[in-house]
Structures are given as structure tokens and as C-alpha cells.
Design goal:
Structural class: alpha/beta
Low-confidence stretches: none
Oligomer: single chain
Helix content: 40-55%
Bound molecules: pyridoxal-5'-phosphate
Radius of gyration: 21 Å
Number of helices: 14
Shape: globular
Order of helices and strands: HHEHHEHEHEHEHEHEEHHHEEHEEEH
Strand order of the largest sheet: 2-8-7-6-5-3-4
């Protein structure tokens, strides 16, 4: 019985080429690798939340997309009147659902690259071709290259994160407007990091028929819930709702998100704290001699001095600090590390370790 041969014969080649998403073991480590919030709810809030969970009927399927929660998310994101909010099991699920709906034979997705690591596998898994358009060396959008790609490939879908991951760059409004003017298909603007940018293009939905916007609660302290949402014109919403599986968000997540949005002030205040801590950390990292990309997100992309990226990554790992390692990535990410904003104590530990590693390197240099 050769199961491997059966698998090889049956699984689509574009699926066989994908790598499963790996998650680093994190127990006992300082976790600055996954853009999570460092803040947990204070105890009184935890108590109230648990009371809400107690009322959930686990024997029942979840309610259909609760209107109160959609309204609260809509208010939080500044959704214009007449536009719809669709809930997803993380925004990853919503990306998959958009890709699924648009994946006609031969259709392609355009991705300004580097960007979120899930875009490509999500598109490939549903059979979309992928056209990657490299960002400029300063990680801005290359509008001339994008225009050419739209003309050459007529993509059905563009996946654009702003602020972008892993760079932290928020693209100028004029660049996004220019992209929307030239785009041939649907543009998904992924605003996972909008709460740290203090700005959002959700209001543009009212003028842009080829735009939908993705948001998530993952980066503002609720990564465990897996709750993302899509903001879209009712016509896009209706089309995408046809490929959404029933009960795609569980009751525990729904009830928890409802509670969280009733405490929007706490969410917003922590996002502001993170943005302030980011700016302080950026200055401290720059003072160590690292090149820091200006960030509007809850993380910083830093470039080590030439040849030192891998050594810095090793020193951090040795000290039990997890960051995202791009030290061996192709240009323009070569020698880079992506560091999620953490607590003051975590930053102190990070800076101590980096400072030592950079000093050690200088000492041994000829
Ligand atoms: C983290 C991230 C997401 C994933 O969000 P989930 O809601 O947790 O699935 C989506 N887009 C970008 C750009 C991200 O960095």
C-alpha cells in the first residue's frame, strides 16, 4: 500500500508545491515575532468576560453573524453607511474566500512584494496565478511597474497591505489612489495594522467600486480569537457570502469580540501605547547603528550592518528572544529582522542583547 504515491497522484501540483505554515515554539521565550499585542486585559475585565462566556450554549451552533457585533466593528473601523461587515475566522479566512470567489481558470493575483507571507499560498491554493511586483528599494510602491503589470497580466485581484507587513510602511494615499485607478480587478486593501497608523482608507469604499478592506482584531490584543472582518459594498458582500462556510466564527470568539468592542477605549488606548513604544524603540535601535524602516505598524523592520544579520538573530535566539529572521532572505530584505513591539522590560532585554552582539562584532573586526 503506497499512500505517498496516491497522494502524489491526486493532490493538485500547486498544492503539493506549498509549504505548511510553521509556528515557532514559544514557551518561556520573549515573543516579538508575530505582531501580537503585549497587553492582556486587566483582571476585572477578565472576570466580566468569563461571565459572558459562561452564558454561551455550547450545544448550539453559533448565531448567524450577530448584527450588534457587526455594527460595533463597523463603528470601530469607520464604515460608511450602506456598507457591509463580514466576519471571518481571522482575516486569513476572508482572504481565502475572496481568492476562492475570483479564481477563474487562468486568472491571476497581483502582489506588491515583499508583503504578507500568506498572500501567495492562499492565491496558489485556489489555482490563481501570482504576479509579484517588487517594491522599490525604499519599500514604496513602484507605480510604473504596477502599471505595466496591470497592462500585461490584467489581474483579477490585487492583495495590498498598508501598513505593509513585513516593512511597516504605510503607502501615501496618492500612491494607493493611483493603484486603484490602474487596477484591473478587485483590490483588497489589508489594513490589519491600521490601529497603529492612526489612519484608514475605509471611507474610500464609498467612491471606489473595485475596493474591499480587511481588518482584524488579531493585532490589537485578541490574536487568540481568530476574528477578522471584511468591509465591502453589499454587492461584493453578497458574492463573497456565497463561498463562506456556515458558522465560520465560533460562539466563544463572537461573544469575546462583543465584550472587547464594548471596551473599545481600552483597545484604542493600548494601540496608542504600542504606537508610542514603537517610536521609542525605533530611536533606540537606530542609536545602536541599525537601519530602521519608518513604521506605521506594531513592529519594526531593521537592517543589520552588512554581514551581521545572522549573528544578531543567533544572539537573540540564544537570549530566548524570538523575532522574525530575514537575514538570509533575498533582497531587499537581506540582513533584516522584524521586531514586534513588546513591553518596556522586553525592549530593555532586546536592546541589551543587540548592543552586546553588535559590540562583540565590532571588537573582533580587524
Ligand atoms: C497578521 C496579518 C493578517 C492576519 O490576520 P488574522 O486576522 O490573524 O488572520 C492579515 N494581514 C496582514 C498583512 C497581517 O500581517
Amino acid at each position: 500500500m503506497d499512500v505517498a504515491a496516491q497522494v502524489a497522484a491526486l493532490v493538485r501540483p500547486e498544492v503539493a508545491e506549498l509549504a505548511a505554515y510553521g509556528v515557532q515554539a514559544a514557551a518561556g521565550r520573549v515573543k516579538l515575532d508575530a505582531m501580537e499585542s503585549p497587553y492582556r486585559w486587566p483582571e476585572p475585565m477578565v472576570g466580566q468576560w468569563l461571565e459572558r462566556l459562561r452564558q454561551v450554549e455550547l450545544n448550539r451552533y453559533p448565531p448567524a453573524s450577530p448584527p450588534a457585533l457587526r455594527a460595533a466593528l463597523g463603528a470601530w473601523a469607520g464604515v460608511p453607511d450602506g456598507f457591509e461587515v463580514m466576519l471571518g475566522n481571522g482575516s486569513d479566512e476572508l482572504l481565502q474566500l475572496i481568492a476562492l470567489a475570483l479564481a477563474r481558470p487562468g486568472a491571476c493575483a497581483l502582489i506588491p512584494t515583499p508583503s504578507f507571507s500568506m498572500y501567495r499560498p492562499i492565491a496558489r491554493a485556489v489555482g490563481l496565478e501570482v504576479v509579484e511586483v517588487p517594491l522599490r528599494a525604499d519599500f514604496g510602491l513602484d507605480l510604473a511597474a504596477l502599471r505595466r503589470a496591470y497592462a500585461d497580466h490584467r489581474p483579477a485581484l490585487t492583495l495590498l497591505a498598508s501598513p505593509n507587513n513585513p516593512t511597516g510602511v504605510r503607502y501615501p494615499d496618492a500612491d494607493i489612489a493611483a493603484l486603484l485607478d490602474t487596477a484591473t480587478g478587485l483590490v483588497v486593501l489589508d489594513e490589519a495594522y491600521a490601529p497603529f497608523a492612526g489612519a484608514s482608507l475605509v471611507p474610500w469604499l464609498a467612491q471606489r467600486p473595485n475596493l474591499v478592506v480587511l481588518r482584524t482584531l488579531s493585532k490589537v490584543g485578541l490574536a487568540a480569537l481568530r476574528l477578522g472582518f471584511l468591509v465591502a459594498h453589499p454587492a461584493w458582500h453578497a458574492a463573497l457570502d456565497r463561498v463562506r462556510l456556515p458558522y465560520n466564527v465560533g460562539s466563544l470568539a463572537l461573544v469575546s469580540a462583543e465584550y472587547a468592542l464594548e471596551h473599545r477605549d481600552w483597545l484604542d488606548a493600548r494601540a496608542a501605547d504600542v504606537a508610542n513604544a514603537r517610536d521609542e524603540l525605533a530611536a533606540e535601535l537606530a542609536a545602536l547603528g541599525l537601519a530602521v524602516v519608518p513604521s506605521a505598524a506594531n513592529f519594526l523592520l531593521v537592517r543589520a550592518p552588512a554581514g551581521q544579520g545572522a549573528a544578531l538573530q543567533a544572539a537573540l535566539l540564544g537570549a530566548g528572544i524570538l523575532v522574525k529572521d530575514f537575514s538570509a532572505a533575498p533582497a531587499p530584505l537581506t540582513e533584516c529582522l522584524r521586531i514586534t513591539v513588546g513591553t518596556a522590560a522586553e525592549h530593555a532585554q532586546l536592546l541589551r542583547t543587540l548592543s552586546r552582539a553588535l559590540g562583540a562584532h565590532t571588537d573582533t573586526a580587524p
